[in-house]
Every structure is written in C-alpha cells, then in structure tokens.
C-alpha cells in the first residue's frame, strides 16, 4: 500500500541497498511504481578519506554503466567530502543530477 501511494503521488522509492533481502524492486515493478536502487553507500564509515574512496568507486560504476546512484547521511564528514569531490568531478566529465533524473530513465525496466 505504501509503494502504491508513493506512485500515485508522483514520488519515487529509493532503495538504499542496505539489505540484500529487500523486496522493494519486485513490488515496485509489479505495481509500476518509480523506483531506484543505490549503487554505493558512501558513508558506511564516516571519515572523509573513506567517503572520498567510495565516491571514486561510484565514479567507476558510473563510467562503466553510464550512471550510478550514491546515498549518504547528512553527517558533517559526508557533506564535506561530497562537496570537495563534486567540485572536481565536472572536470572529469561527471555530471551530478538529482536521483529522479536517473530513476525516470530506469522506469519500465
């Protein structure tokens, strides 16, 4: 019911990929609700160095697949690392977009 309501409201469901046993993908697909899945949890270890390494991993995934979704909490370290990394990402050809731009591309898959 929650997933159906999310779709009716024009919202999307983002699975943070924290559980390998998540059923959200199958449910969303069955009811044609917009959904996406995170490729990388950026701040499982809350240090700037670790987050920057995860951002590099996210970039490798994006280059390989054409896109990638990363999720993070609003920890000071996360915000600082993402801000630092994103300032340089454009120079490497990385475009940072809202998750809804990526999820809409995945709809119907």
The residue-averaged pLDDT reads 89
Largest sheet: 2 strands, parallel
Q: Structural class of the helices, strands and pairings?
A: mainly alpha
Rg estimate, integer Å = 15 Å
Helix content: 40-55%
Please state roughly what percent of the residues sit in beta strands, choosing from under 5%, 5-15%, 15-25%, 25-35%, 35-45% or over 45%: 5-15%
Give the termini distance in whole angstroms. Answer: 21 Å
How many β strands by DSSP? 4
Instruction: Describe the strand arrangement of the main beta sheet, using strand numbers.
Output: 1-2
Order of helices and strands: HEHEEHEHH
Shape: globular
Task: Give the low-confidence spans.
Answer: none
Number of helices: 5
